[in-house]
């Protein structure tokens, strides 16, 4: 099973945004601590996806991460003003 794809699904299909932060935020429109909280969540998501990719590679799992999922995650992070680099 492709772990990367399963982890990506959790971020693409599940609303995981902290309750205190609207989905249209940008750093200049929100209190710093709220933005920092959101940025931490995005960084955590990126870390989970990197670990999943490493696990898949080490266990001979197929390259099954869909570019559509990656694009959805990138778009979400960009909307929030957070730059990410997915594997």
Strand-helix topology:
Elements: H1 3-12, H2 32-58, H3 67-79
Account of the 3D structure:
By secondary structure, the chain is mostly helical. It has a domain of 53 residues. 57% of the residues lie in helices and 0% in strands. Helix 1 runs parallel beside helix 3. The radius of gyration is 14 Å and the shape is elongated.
What attributes does this structure have?
single chain; 87 residues; mainly alpha; 3 helices; 0% strand
In short:
57% of the residues lie in helices and 0% in strands. It is an all-alpha fold and 87 residues long.
Shape: elongated
The stretches of 5 or more residues where confidence is low (pLDDT under 50) are none
Helical proportion, percent range: 55-70%
Distance between the termini: 18 Å
DSSP strand tally: 0
The assembly state of the depicted protein chains is single chain
The averaged pLDDT comes out at 77
Strand content: under 5%
The number of helical elements comes to: 3
Radius of gyration, rounded?
14 Å
Largest sheet: none
**Computed structural class:** mainly alpha
Pattern of helices and strands: HHH
């Amino acid at each position: 099973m492709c772990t990367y794809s399963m982890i990506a699904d959790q971020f693409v299909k599940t609303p995981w945004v902290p309750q205190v932060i609207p989905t249209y935020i940008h750093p200049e429109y929100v209190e710093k601590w709220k933005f920092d909280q959101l940025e931490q969540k995005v960084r955590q998501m990126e870390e989970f996806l990197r670990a999943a990719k490493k696990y898949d590679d080490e266990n001979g799992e197929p390259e099954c991460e869909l570019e559509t999922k990656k694009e959805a995650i990138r778009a979400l992070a960009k909307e929030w003003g957070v730059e990410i680099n997915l594997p």
